[in-house]
Amino acid sequence: MNITQSLKMAVKSIMSNKLRSFLTMLGIIIGVAAVIALVSVGQGAASNITTQMQGLGTNLLTVNISGRGVATSLSYEESLTYAAVPGVKEVSPVISGQVTAKNGTDNVTVQTEGITPEYETVRDYHVQAGRFILPIDIEYRQRIALIGTGTAQDLFGTSNPVGQSVLLNGQRFTIVGLLASKGSSLQSSNDDKILIPISTAERLLKSKGVRSIYIQAQSTDTMDSAMNLIKAKLLNKFGSEDAYTVFNQQDMLDTASSISNTLSIALGGIAGISLFVGGIGIMNIMLVSVNERTREIGIRKAIGAKRRDILTQFLIESVTLGALGGLIGVGIGFGASKLVGKFTSLSVSTSWNIVLLAFCFSLAIGVIFGIVPANKAAKLKPIDALRTD
Amino acid sequence: MSSPQPLIQISGLSHWYKMGDEELRVLKDVSLHIHHGEFVAIIGPSGSGKSTLMNMIGCLDVPNEGSYRLDGQEVRELSDNRLSAIRNEKLGFIFQQFNLLSKLTALENVELPLIYRGLPHKERRMLAEQSLERVGLSSRKLHRPSELSGGQQQRVAIARAIAGKPSILLADEPTGALDTNTGKEIIQLIRELNEQGHTIILITHDLTVASQADRIIHIQDGVIAIDGGARV
Ligand SMILES: Nc1ncnc2c1ncn2[C@@H]1O[C@H](COP(=O)(O)OP(=O)(O)OP(=O)(O)O)[C@@H](O)[C@H]1O
Ligand SMILES: [Mg+2]
Q1: Residues A75-124: pLDDT tens digits?
Q2: pTM, 2 dp
Q3: Are A114 and A209 in contact (CB under 8 A)?
Q4: H/E run at residue A126
Q5: Taking every annotated instance into account, which residue ranges of this chain make up the domain ABC transporter (chain B) (predicted)?
Q6: A13 close to B (CB below 8 A)
Q7: Could you identify the atom of ligand 1 that is nearest to the CA of residue B54?
Q8: What residue spans define the domains of chain B?
Q9: Superfamily of domain B36-62+74-228 in the CATH hierarchy
Q10: Domain ranges of chain A
């Protein structure tokens, strides 16, 4: 007997009990749909994180100074000498701290950073209204500030903050610029912040030195060598590797994408388990079906069916169940990811690889979980099978 | 005309079932020859071992002891696959309970053995329609068993048994589930098939049915008590 005949028999048998077939497939349908939807969400999150990381600026090194060791701090003037390190394009030292910002009765605690004009290009922050901090502001310790859209909303509502003044820890600052919105990163909102000249910040934050330095390399190629030179310079200065940390943006990207890959795998794994459970469902129903159809098997054997014929008949039946469930699951999973992408803030990216993988997996499940029942059917002795009713 | 060698050669055949520790001997040292074209009826009381013997002849089971040669081949030595092929090519079964597949139409039921034989679709259709015609059921070929009367179902079963043109037809109480008149028609049909060349082995309780046969074998308690009219 050939495969088309077996396929016809399998389809006939599946169609003759539609509700049961559907319920049998339900596990596979849900499993495949879940794999596709969850992995799509996971991968969407991954590509989201990557874009955000890239939004921090390109070829970026971040030095954080915790101040343990021989020397405990680095003045901002000294930090500027890192710009002379070969391979470095620009350096943006930052002094940061929490400050109470007040306008009339509105008052918020906000992350405040003392910066230099290089911050604009190195960190890729720009103003949407007003002007950025200029070298002259640093030189004269001007009490001016740039404000993020989030903080501006908190303090000034919908009115334009540029030109207004704000009290930072009781000192009056004039707002000269409104930052363009950056959205939120993993840790916090990029829009809830105030930027002031670094020289002014030294006093306002009573800080002895810079907390972080953002360093932009000339190109991706010079990243590593620049990073090593900077590390050497820092070690020379602090005398201990504990006093500072240096991040490479690429490293962070790698970390982030490995986290999100882990997320995808975990989500896929959970969904995979439900696919597996679906497979057990198929096996269960196939076993029941073999029992119910013992007499049918006996009749078929009596009129000449070979073991192989019975085996393929039941195997094709379970594979067809798996494939059909897989197809419906792919449809639902695809639709679900589209809906999630449309109606929630989650970003979703469905790759054909995962669709194909999930479908093949459901086929494989049809085979693997069909073998036991099919083998059971094939091994029945015709005389015993005919005697049951 | 007929080959010198009997179609069915049974000698010293014994069979028993294990019931726990005890052995229930159902066939005891049975010897029997049946030739091409014979019409044999097997009768005997309930539980005497008629069906068991029939299952042996039909290659649905193999004897515990003794020899059974079908067309000169020792059945005990054949593989499971070969037995399936032999059932498909040489044997046709007619059961008391018809044993049609309820999800298939009459025509599909008749086609089934031909599918397992691996015949192409067209040839299958043709043979199946021919044998439905031989049992006078062409007009019902698209009906399912549940839409047919008992007699009609048994006719479909007979059509299925003869579709593959087997040399032997085995009928285990084919009239057992039918009323007297319908039963008579079925026996008449079986007679005609015998006249057309099929070797028939028929099990029955009914002496009037058995009297249609050329040869009547009485089985009692697993042994052949009387073998009337055996050709030697
Ligand atoms: N699979 C089996 N296991 C155990 N005992 C069996 C089995 N099949 C048949 N028997 C026993 O073998 C004996 C003969 O059975 P068989 O079916 O051959 O009788 P029979 O002559 O066909 O009877 P009936 O006219 O009632 O059909 C019976 O006693 C039956 O109980
Ligand atoms: Mg019987």
Answers
A1: 888 888 888 888 888 999 999 889 999 988 888 999 999 999 999 888 88
A2: 0.73
A3: no
A4: none
A5: 8-232
A6: yes
A7: 18
A8: 36-62+74-228
A9: P-loop containing nucleotide triphosphate hydrolases (3.40.50.300)
A10: 3-52+255-387, 69-239
